[in-house]
C-alpha cells in the first residue's frame, strides 16, 4: 500500500502498508511509524487485557502503588527523551512539554497514593431503621477501560484517565490520537518496563476506525477525550452495548476581569491562557470580558504582552505549529467572519493564520453570536469584550453551549463570581491552575461533556460502588418477612410518625 493522505500539509497522519506514519507538524519530516490496529487486533487486545486486569486487581492497592510510582520515576528520569519526542511529533516547545510532564507525574503520584483511602472498604452509618446491620462501602474496579485520547496534550490528557483507571485496579487499552501515536506508544512501552508480567496497559494505534473498534470491543467503560462531534458518535456506538462513557470535550473558556482586578496579572494570564500551546488547549482562554472601568488599560497591557509572543519550530519558541493542520481552516474562518461582522483585530489579523504557525490574534468588538465567540477556535486567538458590570460578564461567560473551565480576576468578588460561572472548573486570580491540583476533579458540563478525571471523583469514575449490608444480629420482630405481624406494622407506623412526621 502506498502512502494515502494529504502529505502536502505537514503533520497530517498517513497510512502506509499497514502502518500509521507520524510526521512533524512543523517540517513534515517523518518521526516514526506504528502498526495500525484493525478491529480484530483491537478485540484481541481487549481479550488479552481481561486476565491482565484480574492479575492487576489482585496486586492490591499497595502492589499497584509500587508499580505506578516506579512508572512515575521512569517517566521523570527519561524526561529529555519524552520531551524531545513530544517536540518532534506534536510540535510544542520542549519547556512546555516539560511542564506537561511535571503535572502528569504529579497526578500519577496522587492517584497511586490516594487510591486505597478513597476506594478501599469503609464502614458507613447504617441508620436507625437498620441498627442491626453493618454497612460497608467499597469501590471495585470495572475491568478493562478503553481510553481514547487527543493530540494537544498527548501525555497529560489521556493520563487523567489512564493513571486513575490503573490506580483503581483496571487494565487499560489506550488508543492515542493518530497525530501523536509515538508519544502514546512511549507511555505504553515505559509502563511495560515496570509491569512486564501482563499487558495491563496496551496500545492500539490508528485513526477514528481504531477508536470506533475499541468502543465496541466489549470494554467495561470508554474514557474519551476529544471533540464534541466525535463524542456523540462514541455515545451512539456505546449505547448498543450499554457501555458507560466518560466524555471530556472541548471548551470556549471565558476569562472575566472585574474593575478591582490586578490588571497586570489578568493580562499576563489572558496571554498565557489564550496563546500558550498555540491556543490548542481544551481549557484555554478564548473569550475575555472586561469591566468598562478598566477595559482600556487592560486592553493596552494585553496587546503589548501579546505582541511579544512568537511561534516557531525552535525548542524554545513561545509555542509551536498547529499540530492538526486542518484546524487552520477553522481558525481562519473564525477570524475572517469576526472581521467581516465588524470586529477589529488589535493584534494580528487574517494574515496571521498562514500555517503551520499561527501568529497571535486579538479581536475586539466581535458580535456575541459570531463563531469566534460561540465555537471552539483552538488557535492562538482571543476575543475581548467590554461589559458594564460583572452581572453582564457572567451572563455572557455563560452564553455558549460549552462549560469546561473559566477564570475570574477580582480582588473582592472572585469566589462569588466563580460560583456563578457555568463550568466544571474556575480559577480565581490565575488561569488553568486547577489542572495542576490533583485533588480537584476535572471535567465539563453541556457540550464540554460529563464525568470527571482527577481527584477522588476521578478515581471513583473508574469503579463501581459495592454496597455490603451484613446483619449482625436478628431483631426481636420480623420486618422484611411475610411473618411480619399487625403489631409490628403498628409499631412501624408509630416510629415513622415520630421520626418523620414533623415539618421541621
Ligand atoms: P477528535 O474528536 O478528532 O479525536 C479524538 C480521538 O477520537 C482520536 O484519538 C481519534 O482518532 C478518535 N476518534 C475519531 N473518530 C472516532 C470514532 N468514530 N470512534 C471512536 N474514536 C474516534 O479530537 P482531537 O482533534 O484529537 O482533539 C481536540 C479536541 O479535544 C478539542 O475539542 C479539545 O478541546 C478536546 N480536548 C478536551 C480535553 C478535556 O479534558 N476536556 C482535553 C484535551 C482536548
UniProtKB/TrEMBL annotation:
Q: Which UniProt keywords apply?
A: Oxidoreductase
- The residues annotated as the active site are 248, 282
* Ranges for region Disordered: 1-33
Residues forming the Aldehyde dehydrogenase domain are 23-468
Can you supply a Gene Ontology BP term from the record? Answer: aldehyde metabolic process
Query: In this entry, which stretches build a coiled coil?
Result: none
Under the heading InterPro entries, the entry gives:
Ald_DH/histidinol_DH, Ald_DH_C, Ald_DH_CS_CYS, Ald_DH_CS_GLU, Ald_DH_N, Aldehyde_DH_dom, Aldehyde_DH_NAD(P)
Question: Could you say which protein family the record assigns here?
Answer: Belongs to the aldehyde dehydrogenase family.
User: What is the protein name stated in its UniProt record?
Assistant: Aldehyde dehydrogenase
> What taxonomic classification does the UniProt entry list for its organism?
Bacteria, Bacillati, Actinomycetota, Actinomycetes, Cryptosporangiales
What GO molecular function annotations does the UniProt record carry, in alphabetical order? oxidoreductase activity, acting on the aldehyde or oxo group of donors, NAD or NADP as acceptor
The protein's organism comes out as Cryptosporangium phraense
Q: Where is the composition biased (Polar residues)?
A: 1-10
Amino acid at each position: 500500500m502506498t502512502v494515502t493522505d494529504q502529505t502536502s500539509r505537514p503533520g497530517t497522519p498517513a497510512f502506509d502498508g499497514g502502518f500509521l506514519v507520524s510526521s512533524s507538524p512543523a517540517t513534515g519530516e517523518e518521526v516514526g511509524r506504528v502498526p495500525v490496529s484493525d478491529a480484530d487486533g483491537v478485540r484481541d487486545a481487549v481479550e488479552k487485557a481481561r486476565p491482565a486486569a484480574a492479575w492487576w486487581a489482585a496486586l492490591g492497592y499497595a502492589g499497584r502503588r509500587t508499580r505506578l510510582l516506579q512508572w512515575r520515576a521512569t517517566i521523570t528520569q527519561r524526561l529529555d527523551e519524552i520531551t524531545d519526542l513530544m517536540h518532534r511529533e506534536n510540535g510544542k516547545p520542549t519547556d512546555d512539554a516539560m511542564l506537561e510532564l511535571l503535572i502528569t507525574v504529579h497526578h500519577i503520584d496522587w492517584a497511586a497514593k490516594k487510591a486505597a483511602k478513597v476506594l478501599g472498604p469503609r464502614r458507613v452509618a447504617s441508620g436507625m431503621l437498620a441498627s442491626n446491620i453493618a454497612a460497608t462501602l467499597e469501590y471495585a474496579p470495572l475491568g478493562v477501560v478503553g481510553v481514547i485520547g487527543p493530540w494537544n496534550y498527548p501525555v497529560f490528557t489521556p493520563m487523567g484517565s489512564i493513571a486513575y483507571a490503573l490506580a483503581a485496579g483496571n487494565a487499560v487499552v489506550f488508543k492515542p490520537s493518530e497525530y501523536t501515536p509515538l508519544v502514546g506508544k512511549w507511555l505504553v512501552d515505559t509502563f511495560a518496563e515496570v509491569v512486564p508480567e501482563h499487558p495491563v496497559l496496551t496500545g492500539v494505534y490508528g485513526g477514528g476506525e481504531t477508536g470506533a473498534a475499541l468502543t465496541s470491543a466489549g470494554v467495561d467503560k470508554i474514557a474519551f477525550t476529544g471533540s464534541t462531534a466525535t463524542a456523540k458518535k462514541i455515545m451512539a456506538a456505546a449505547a448498543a452495548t450499554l457501555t458507560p462513557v466518560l466524555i471530556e470535550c472541548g471548551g470556549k473558556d471565558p476569562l472575566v476581569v472585574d474593575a478591582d482586578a490586578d490588571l497586570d496579572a489578568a493580562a499576563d494570564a489572558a496571554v498565557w491562557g489564550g496563546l500558550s500551546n498555540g491556543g490548542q488547549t481544551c481549557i484555554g482562554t478564548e473569550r475575555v470580558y472586561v469591566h468598562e472601568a478598566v477595559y482600556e488599560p487592560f486592553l493596552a497591557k494585553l496587546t503589548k504582552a501579546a505582541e511579544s509572543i512568537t511561534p516557531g519550530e525552535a525548542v524554545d519558541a513561545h509555542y509551536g505549529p498547529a499540530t492538526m493542520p486542518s484546524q487552520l481552516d477553522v481558525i481562519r474562518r473564525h477570524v475572517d467572519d469576526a472581521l467581516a461582522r465588524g470586529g477589529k483585530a488589535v493584534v494580528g489579523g487574517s494574515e496571521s493564520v498562514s500555517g503551520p504557525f499561527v501568529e497571535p490574534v486579538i479581536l475586539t468588538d466581535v458580535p456575541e453570536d459570531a463563531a469566534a465567540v460561540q465555537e471552539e477556535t483552538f488557535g492562538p486567538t482571543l476575543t475581548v469584550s467590554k461589559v458594564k458590570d460583572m452581572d453582564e460578564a457572567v451572563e455572557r461567560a455563560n452564553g455558549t453551549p460549552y462549560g469546561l473551565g473559566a477564570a475570574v480576576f477580582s480582588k473582592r468578588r472572585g469566589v462569588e463570581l466563580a460560583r456563578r460561572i457555568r463550568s466544571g472548573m474556575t480559577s480565581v486570580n490565575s488561569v488553568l491552575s486547577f489542572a495542576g491540583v490533583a485533588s480537584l476533579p476535572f471535567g465539563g458540563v453541556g457540550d464540554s461533556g460529563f464525568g470527571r478525571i482527577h481527584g477522588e471523583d476521578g478515581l471513583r469514575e473508574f469503579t463501581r460502588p459495592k454496597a455490603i449490608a451484613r446483619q449482625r444480629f436478628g431483631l426481636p420482630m420480623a420486618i422484611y418477612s411475610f411473618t411480619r405481624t399487625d403489631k409490628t406494622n403498628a409499631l412501624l407506623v408509630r416510629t415513622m410518625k415520630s421520626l418523620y412526621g414533623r415539618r421541621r
